[in-house]
Design brief:
141 residues; 6-stranded mixed sheet; 2 domains; 6 strands; alpha+beta; Aminopeptidase
Length: 141
Amino acid sequence: MECILEGEIVGILACSNNRRRAMTVDKPSLKQAFGFLKGNLAYDSLDKEFNAPLPFEDETGYIECVATSERARGKGVSTALFKHVMQELPYRNYILEVVDTNSTAIRLYKKLGFEEFKRKREKLSRLKGFKERIYLQWIKG
């Protein structure tokens, strides 16, 4: 799903399910972009994150990615994308993951009605710049 403003894409939201991922990585593209060695290393580190099947029931949509261009932030783009997806897609339950340092996103998700159900401490948190992954869900009423 994308949001277009004045002919420019200013926001995206990717929603996956247990049968198909919205965002995948493939080795040939990574090797072409980064070279043989770095492409293979990138694929090996990203494969499980982006290509593995999701362990959710059929009624669950997984919000895999949300992004808004800098010039469109604060103008309701992400809110509009979420509302459209939550109304139009057939899922009863939506799950997403956010890192603890992304307070702007956490506020948005809670405003939309998402509730925290799990936290997972991150290994190598100093290198990654965050301590925990926070899992939130929204269930259609």
